[in-house]
Design brief:
This protein is α/β, with parallel strands linked by helices. The chain has a domain of 153 residues: Isoleucyl-tRNA Synthetase, Domain 1, CATH 1.10.730. The chain contains 18 helices and 15 strands. Helix 13 runs parallel beside helix 15, helix 13 runs antiparallel to helix 17 and helix 15 runs antiparallel to helix 17. The structure holds 5'-O-[(L-methionyl)-sulphamoyl]adenosine (MSP). The site of 5'-O-[(L-methionyl)-sulphamoyl]adenosine has 19 residues, from strand 1, helix 1, helix 7 and strand 11.
Length: 507
């Protein structure tokens, strides 16, 4: 039996088109999912869309459409982008699906039966764009503390979730599990938030005001609050209480990846819901920073939203994936600029990796008619062996800490070393003076490229497959196992096939 790994992205709102910020969470999860598959895990990678709530209802109204018609249309923009970005999710959940709605209603009813959901009167302020209720004391001048837009005053019947009852259990859990929230700074934030006290949470809305949601199973005048509904996707997708085998195999999730803006929902509300339902808590919530543009939040009104397809058209899918993960440390904010993207493209991809592939294959074609020689002496192989042996534990450690940029640096140290090796060994001189050494040098280079391609695959699947193909390798790259990939395994006699440059000159 393979060990399992369950990883989730947040489910995205479908009232608008995805931008590079949304793609960041999905790309990061995709890298972890692919890496885990390459290290022998059975992976379940979940993503999906958050389709209820007032925001969607309002967007539909503005377009003179039924909410269901709008979400059916908009969900495709996400699915198409994930296909374009080669996101390898195993499942895609939509909160309007029956399999989800059933679980949400069952959980809501279970908590009601238990007394953890109870009726009351809600009075307060509501931010429509954020779908969040605020206390008077939290807001300044009637504006939303998160987005700064005007709040609406509401007073209505509601059901409350007894979150206060789980304050102590959550605190105890957090104390025992200092790795529950990553990075640690975010864990501290959550600790102080919980220590500050948890209030009961309004988890239903009057149907008269918000009708686009999952109906409350025991009160026809109420619909379930969109965040209560949305968080449950992580277990409804596994068929909670329906497909026990799938659920038991993958729950609790190993990594739940989110942006810093939705940390409170995932590290406070979600765990208290699970504690109330007596379901295990996820292993780890990982929060990343935000992408800004010239230091500004991306927004339609500012007109600075970066369109993923424009970036794909410019540098290709792989450079896009590489840039987002290499440029900024994952927990911190990153600033997107086309200039920085181009610098990375030229330096790391075209001049470094692309050139290494190109030079190696050109020399092999020139000196050995493109056939990988059989060799018994490989100059400086120890240097490479040391690097390769240390690579897997280093990358495992870095990816476990969501340090994507550092993991890429480790892989690039192998590529740098190989480029340096070409300069030091000067194969063009060896061709005249020492053909046996030349054979050893070129063997090492294709062998290193073979190992590098497997490590690159989770980050840039398309480019890794192209390298693989140009190296003439026929076994399946996605089926490789990094635990057994080492140097010295390149089959002599393989015919390489130099293709078009991996990272062509930008126009
Ligand atoms: N629907 C909720 C999540 C429910 S999960 C049970 C939601 N959706 S969202 O579409 O607004 O955001 C989804 C993800 O995209 C979040 O992780 C958010 O942090 C991320 N990003 C949205 N804009 C972003 C940037 N500008 N930069 C980085 N990530 C950003 O919240």
């Amino acid at each position: 039996m393979k060990p399992t790994f369950y990883i989730t992205t947040p489910i995205y709102y479908v009232n608008d088109k995805p931008h590079i910020g949304h793609s960041y969470t999905s790309i990061a999860c995709d890298v972890l999912a692919r890496f885990k598959r390459l290290t022998g895990y059975q992976v379940y990678f979940l993503t999906g869309t958050d389709e209820h709530g007032q925001k969607v209802a309002q967007a539909a109204k503005a377009q003179n459409q039924e909410p269901q018609a709008l979400v059916d249309l908009n969900v495709q923009t996400y699915q198409n982008l994930w296909t374009a970005l080669e996101i390898s999710n195993d499942d895609f959940i939509r909160t309007t699906e029956l399999r989800h709605k059933e679980v949400v209603q069952a959980m809501f009813a279970e908590l009601y039966k238990k007394g953890d959901i109870y009726p009351g009167q809600y009075e307060g302020w509501y931010c429509v764009p954020c779908e969040t209720f605020w206390l008077e004391s939290q807001s300044e001048k009637g504006l939303c503390p998160d987005c700064g837009r005007a709040l609406e005053k509401v007073s209505e019947k509601t059901y409350f979730f007894k979150m206060s009852k789980y304050e102590k259990p959550l605190l105890e859990y957090l104390e025992k599990h200092p790795d529950f929230v990553h990075p640690h700074g975010r864990y501290n934030e959550i600790m102080s938030l919980v220590k500050g006290g948890l209030k009961d949470l309004s988890v239903s809305r009057s149907k008269a005001r918000i009708s686009w949601g999952i109906p409350c199973p025991f009160d026809p005048d109420q619909v379930i609050y969109v965040w209560f509904d949305a968080l449950i996707n992580y277990v409804s997708a596994l068929g909670y209480k329906k497909h026990q085998d799938l659920f038991n195999r993958f729950w609790p999730a190993d990594v739940q990846m989110i942006g810093k803006d939705i940390l409170k929902f995932h590290a406070v509300i979600w765990p208290t819901m699970l504690l109330a339902l007596e379901v295990s808590l996820p292993q780890k919530i990982v929060a990343h920073g935000w992408w800004t543009v010239a230091g500004q939040k991306m927004s339609k009104s500012k007109g600075n939203v970066v369109d993923p397809y424009a970036i794909i058209a410019k540098v290709g899918v792989d450079a896009y994936r590489y840039f987002l993960l290499r440029e900024a440390p994952f927990g911190l904010d990153g600033d997107f600029s086309e200039a920085a993207l181009i610098v990375r493209y030229q330096a790391d991809l075209a001049n470094n990796l692309g050139n290494l592939v190109n030079r190696t294959l050109t020399m092999l074609e020139k000196y050995f008619a493109g056939v990988v020689p059989q060799v018994d002496f490989v100059p400086h192989v120890e240097k490479f062996k040391k690097l390769v042996t240390g690579l897997l534990p280093a990358i495992e450690r870095k990816l476990a800490a969501a340090a994507f940029s550092q993991a890429l640096e480790s892989i690039w140290s192998l590529i740098d070393q190989a480029n340096k090796y070409i300069e030091e060994e000067a194969p063009w001189k060896l061709a005249k003076s020492d053909p046996a050494r030349l054979a050893g040098v070129l063997y090492t280079l294709v062998d290193v490229l073979r190992v590098a391609a497997v490590y690159i695959y989770p980050f840039m699947p398309g480019s890794a497959l192209k390298i693989w193909e140009q190296l003439g390798l026929t076994e399946s790259l996605p089926a490789a196992n990094l635990n057994t990939v080492t140097l010295g395994q390149f089959p002599p006699g393989t015919k390489v096939q130099k293709g078009v440059p991996l990272f062509p000159k930008l126009v």
